[in-house]
Amino acid sequence: MYDEKEYNKTAEEPYNLKNPPPASSSTVKKVMRSMKTKDTKAEVTLRKALREIGLSGYRKNWEKALGKPDITYPGKKVAIFVHGCFWHGCPKCGKQTPKTHSQFWIEKISRNRQRDTNIILKLEESGWKVFVFWECEINKDVQTLAKDVAEFIQRTDRSIY
Ligand SMILES: [Zn+2]
């Protein structure tokens, strides 16, 4: 999603998704650089906690599931999205959008949120159980989140799918 080369382009045209505004401070730059879309620190942490609790049969970014969830248990129809607080507009920790070019970021983040909502709804409509975990929740208490997933899978015995 975030591409350093695109990002560093001098912006003569109006800003758009392929031509985002330049980072205006070193803090913004640092935040931007830390925003990978795959194998983020939060994903790695969560997957480790899931393995430790005995849920190791997951797929990463499984292409057959809509939206390629970060983690899926295909046989159980359980999908987990790990959302970066900044990109997805976390309602829990209120990570702020950069002060400069904030209109650009607000629009981009709201588009991401819309996309998230659509994907989640469609997955649920086709029988998936979807968990959305925020980066800040994972940092705070990953064990509880992993336990929630484990309990759901045990309780519902979704192996019938
Ligand atoms: Zn957050």
From TrEMBL:
The keyword Lipid biosynthesis does not apply. One of its GO terms (biological process) is DNA repair. Keywords: DNA damage, DNA repair, Endonuclease, Hydrolase, Nuclease. InterPro entries: DNA_mismatch_endonuc_vsr (IPR004603), Restrct_endonuc-II-like (IPR011335). Coiled coil: none annotated. Pfam families: Vsr. One of its GO terms (molecular function) is endonuclease activity. This is Very short patch repair endonuclease.
